[in-house]
Amino acid sequence: MYLPRSRACDAIASIVRPGTLLGVLHWRAMSQDSSESSLFSDLSFDDTDLPADLRQAVAELGFTRLTQVQAAVLPLALSGRDVVAQAQTGSGKTAAYLLTVFARMLGDDRRSELTDPRALIVAPTRELAVQIASDADKLGHVAGFRVHVVFGGIDYKKQRDRFAEGVDLLIGTPGRLIDYHRQGAYSLRDTEMVVVDECDRLFDMGFADDLRWLLHRLPPPDRRQSLMFTATLSRRVMRLGWREMTDPAEIVINPEQLTPETVHQELYHVAAHEKLSLLLGLLEREGGQRIMIFLNTKHAARRLVEDLRRHGYVARALTGDVMQTKRLRVLDDFRDGTLPILVATDVASRGLHIEGVTHVINFDLPQDPEDYVHRIGRTARVGAEGKALTLACDDYVYSLDAVHSYIGYEIPVVFAPDELFAEVIPYRPKPRARSGSGGRRSGGGRRGERRESTGKTDRPPAAEGEAPTKKRRRRRRKKKPPVTGGDQGQ
């Protein structure tokens, strides 16, 4: 096993005592600069004594200093300790566990078959799995690691055939991981490490049983290393840690601060029928280059995309029912700047690291307070500046108190003047094309007119004092029974 000897390792080891049931480390800022104190530490990557290949990959990406979560996790994880870590979104959790995985692969000999992964990373969503795989390629390409990502909604056979080429690191969503395991495409009996990212989200999405199924196919907890990372640490996560991990160290980074300091937040109270007008005014005033707008339902997201296009904005939707290939195209266009506005449900609120998101707009106030933290975490990542605007209408304002209670403070309220409300172009449905002479309704006019004309009669009205005459009903003539052969003979 890879055992680094470094200043960071000695510092953490002196705080977390081995042999305890759960070492709890509340890691706080060591820098005096308030804009960076909640994110970066005073340690550099050289202090962790990472292998040269990994230090080269980190240098190529332009990183020099460790973030707070990396400085707290890496020394413990690199020494082989199981870790459960909570930190803000965009704080470098992904790099912390990927560097641990690759350092262990470089330090230990392979003991599994080529088709079986040495390390497994479980993610709740397809978008997060793709993002982790992208980061893994950037960090592990110098060492030639084979990274394979599996998820639903894309070529099933192609993903399955990739196992024959060999796998070092397997990343995937629970459903597709279980499918391929049951088919015998790979085995987890000799896997050395397992990482569960966004563990609380896996529970929220109903993957608790699937996660346990995968963990029980791995070697026992004392024969593997287990890491769990999440932005919100719950009792359910810790219960799983106690059962499926060996003496895990719990690390909580700035527990009193769930949202980044570099996010400027504003709250606008607005009537539901005026939300679109206010949104258009905010878009015109802010003028961001890369904007994410969150809504609670996919139907509302599609409708908002149509409204924005009608007003001249380029926008596309990212919802749960969008095909996976189309999802990837939408995300790629948003990353490279081709798509300036991404309208999404909470499927895109976790784990996606997209640089340069200038604004996050909550068109709908989230019903789950944890989703507010994850939504605004799409901006101001890795110390950058960002802005989060929230519209609280009468449909969703009831969840505002829960959001304030969860984040520990009240979002600053801003009054929207009349001039901030933009003019809304009314929706005009396209007229239906009339069918030709051979159509179903040709020659008959509209349905209501035909119904009215057929209800008229030519009978004169009844005289005054005279009972109206009833319409005589025509009696249907009974059909005569067919004549049998015997009757014809008589």
Walk me through the structure.
The chain is α/β, with parallel strands linked by helices and 490 residues long. It folds into 2 domains: 7-253, 3-Layer(aba) Sandwich (Rossmann fold); 263-420, Rossmann fold. 34% of the residues lie in helices and 15% in strands. The protein has 18 helices and 16 strands. It has helices spanning 7-13, 34-37, 52-60, 68-78, 93-107, 126-140, 156-161, 174-182, 199-204, 208-216, 235-244, 275-286, 298-310, 324-335, 369-376, 400-407, 447-454, 485-489; strands at 23-27, 40-44, 65-67, 83-86, 119-122, 147-150, 169-172, 193-197, 225-230, 249-253, 263-269, 291-294, 315-318, 341-344, 359-362, 386-392. An 8-stranded parallel sheet has the order 1-10-4-9-8-5-7-6, with helices on both faces. A 6-stranded parallel sheet has the order 11-16-15-12-14-13, with helices on both faces. Helix 14 links the parallel strand 13 (315-318) and strand 14 (341-344). Helix 4 runs parallel beside helix 5, helix 5 crosses helix 6 (126-140) and helix 8 packs across helix 10 (208-216). The protein is globular and about 95 Å long. The N and C termini lie far apart (109 Å). Mean pLDDT is 81; it is low at 1-36 and 437-457.
- At CATH level 3, the topology of the largest domain is Rossmann fold
Q: How would you characterize the largest beta sheet?
A: 8 strands, parallel
Strand order of the largest sheet: 1-10-4-9-8-5-7-6
Low-pLDDT residue intervals, each spanning 5 or more residues: 1-36, 437-457
What's the name of the CATH homologous superfamily of the largest domain?
A: P-loop containing nucleotide triphosphate hydrolases
What integer value in Å does the Rg equal? 32 Å
